[in-house]
Amino acid sequence: MSSIDTSTDEHTHGVVTLSVANLHESPKLSAPLVSQLLMGTTVTILRAQDRWLYVHGPDKYPGWTVQSVQRMNSVEIDSWQCRRKVIVTAAHAYVRRSRVLDSGVISDVVAGDILALAGDAPTPSEAGSCHPVAFPDGRTGFLDRTCGEPLSAWLGTAHATPDTIVATAQRFMGTPYLWGGASTKALDCSGFVKTVFFLNGMILPRDAVQQALVGEHVPIDETMAQVRPGDLLFFAPKADVTASPRITHVGISLGGARFIQASGYVRVSSLSPADPDYATDRAEALVSVRRVLGSEGTVGITPMRLLPEYGG
Q1: Residue-wise pLDDT tens digits, 231-266
Q2: Cα torsion 217, 266, 25, 109: sign
Q3: What is the pLDDT of residues 191-205, one digit of tens each?
Q4: Do 249 and 288 belong to one domain?
Q5: Are residues 179 and 240 in the same domain?
Q6: What's the pTM?
């Protein structure tokens, strides 16, 4: 394993070129998956080994990835960040070779992926069935206009509120669980939370343990009366009764006792025995509630619009 010498190798940055880039614990495909990064995410390259790169994105969560990042020097990364962009808003779509919607596929894309507008692309007000787009590695194609939106316009309307967070979370109903998953393809519990907030213009820490440290503490009792939609519910093993419990799971409140979580698959559960979807194991394991809505700009809660990689 070798560290990149930034004094001699300017290509210490890069941009994700696949719809979803897998991050592994070590530089081999059989290593555990630790997270995922979406297309268009700017990464810092920390180390290199053969074809593998050890990287982190804006959330600073590191992992090893292979053949999924276009390496760039400082001039190239600045140029990429200055380009007009499109963000994918459909859960899943395709970039095709021509404006014909059943033409050959260049790549799949998922919600939150970001591509550049290619060439003399039309403005949002101009008619057209497709966005002409460019990938970070230079490929070009066409994205159905109904599947994406100019990033600048999207950032202007992407506001995390209780209603938007709940509505976005419910879009994922039935999505399968995957340890390390953080995309519409599959999700773990904290990847679900992170993705829901990202699709509303907010970057949160990657893991539940980290997420439990941001935002404001919300008092909880048997009535859950002070818990609002969009609050984050954190759980620890039942036997862990220490002052600092070991957080192992997170879900998003729907208000009161009901919440949505990625557990086996994304589903709604309840902490109330009176409800048919009462989750006994979760009711016994709830240890804290945090409110991140209203705390934008504080440590660990970053609005996308403020970051240069998203046009800030």
Answers
A1: 999 999 875 656 678 999 999 999 999 999 999 999
A2: negative
A3: 999 999 999 999 999
A4: yes
A5: yes
A6: 0.93
In single-letter form, the type of residue at position 266 comes to: V
Residues 6+ apart with CB under 8 A from 247: 208, 209, 212, 234, 235, 236, 287, 288
Query: Any idea how long the chain is?
Result: 312
Question: Which residue matches tokens 């002409």?
Answer: 132
What is the DSSP track for 260-297?
EEEESEEEEEES-TTSTTB-HHHHHHEEEEEE-TT-TT
The span from the CA of 278 to the CA of 240, in Å, is: 21
Q: Please, which residues have CB within 8 angstroms of residue 96's CB and are 6 or more apart in sequence?
A: 102, 103, 104, 105, 106, 130, 141, 142, 143
Residue 76's Cβ-count burial label (10 Å; 0-12, 13-18, 19+) is middle
Residue 144 domain boundaries: 83-150
Cα distances from 145 to residues 38, 114, 125, 199, in angstroms, run 19, 14, 12, 18
d(CA 151, CA 118): 14
- Domain with 33 in it: what CATH number? 2.30.30.40
Q: Tell me how far CA of residue 175 lies from CA of 120, 172, 182, in angstroms.
A: 37, 5, 11
Task: Name residue, tokens 């990202």.
Answer: 198
- 264 neighbors 258 (Cβ within 8 angstroms): no
Q: Does the structure show a pLDDT above 60 at 171?
A: yes
Q: How many C-alpha atoms does 117 have within 13 Å on its Cβ side?
A: 18
44 and 107 assigned to the same domain = no
DSSP-assigned letter for residue 148:
E
Q: Are 133 and 141 in contact (CB under 8 A)?
A: yes
